[in-house]
Design goal:
Structural class: alpha+beta
Shape: globular
Mean pLDDT: 91
Number of helices: 14
Largest sheet: 7 strands, mixed
Number of strands: 22
Strand order of the largest sheet: 6-5-15-16-17-14-18
Helix content: 25-40%
Strand content: 15-25%
Amino acid sequence: MTQSTPPRHAVVIGGSMAGLLAAAVLAEHATVTIIDADTLPDSPQARRGLPQARHVHVLWSGGARAIEEILPGITQEWTAAGALRRSLPTDLVTMTAQGWIPRCDEKQFNISCSRDLLDSVVRRRVVALPGVTTLQQSRVRALEGTAARVTGVRVDTPEEEGRLLAADLVVDASGRGSRARVWLEALGTGGIRQSEVDSGLVYATRIYEAPAGAHEMGFPIVNVQSDPRVPVPGRTATIVPIEDGQWQATLSGTRGGQPTNDPDAFIPFAKDIRHPIVGELLEGRKPLTDVAVTQGTTNRRIHFEKADLPDGFFAVGDSVATFNPLYGQGMTVAARGLLAVRALLRSKGLSQPGFGNAAQRALAPQVSTAWDLATSQDIMYPGATGMKPKPGAGLLDAYVNRLITGATTQEPLTEAFFEVITMTSPPTSWFRPEVVWRVLRASPQGALKAPPLTAAERTVAGLGADPADRAR
């Protein structure tokens, strides 16, 4: 951009994680206005437009590294604000469908904290970037332009209804409730296809006071997953240590086995799944919140990348695809996809013809990987609706099940498992010759029979030192 070239302007609809990261990427090439219906808080506070923030959020190492590339130093800022960097699987006690994963040396990591803290640190960094401004308590009414090109948005602000905000690029990051398809259809863009897989999943979360000494010793994340191979509702329970010495506990259940907002039923639900360890850890702990419940967790994907979009527009984050939150993919998918958009911007520039379509296609590989991982599992639960598995999916599932079985006993397969689950490497890495060789020889022999908590961790949690197997 030179002195004789007027500065370009981009509008980002939505101020959550995907929108903030999009703004950070675009700020290298344009002034940016972030539009959000809420008042964006200056500190880690709940906001109406992000109700799912009440539940456990996992930022895998694949996503954390991507955000670190976009905003250097952000990991240190998260930990300074109270977030915990947890080694995987060293700081993780998890029962997969195939059994307990051993707590070996670090293979990957995640960032553990409340979603409100995670967002607030990123928001503080992004809104301080040169050329980035926010338009709060404002709602986009429509896209401005034609089927050939989007030229801005019509927005209702506290001062003015239908205000025209001109833009060289509009990015929709407004989330699960996005109206982008309606807006595009109003401009003459039709035939945008949508896919869905709905397992009927419901989430319930409550925050507890962690036992004395648990935070200081680095108490692990504890998680019991469901087994989609068994034809019963899939139910899970998770405890994630977060900032301020708290435990964030989330339960989930698919159709026919959902948790409720009944506080008296929370711990019994956690004890009545494949292993009772999460319920036992919560028993006797002081609850700090009521039970928050979220429904409407359908996997939904809008195939913008296959449509003939008008120039000057693309969508990102939950506006493109929403996944079963159990897999913790959303933020990581958005961050890694936006790295691809950044590379496109740096090589071609914002002014290249067809940039919006090119950006949408650049995002698609990350979305497709997460979509396949999530929906291949969710469609297996009783009563699940939506697209059926692709031909050959059964053979692939059998291979992956065998790999995860191997991950319970062989450290190289544990490493391969976490590479993909944390979205550090694509699923194709599971088919490297050295991995295939080990998968073909995988066996559950020697697998752990009980949750691998240390004697010190059991003592702090009030469980005693006896790790007797109570798996059901």
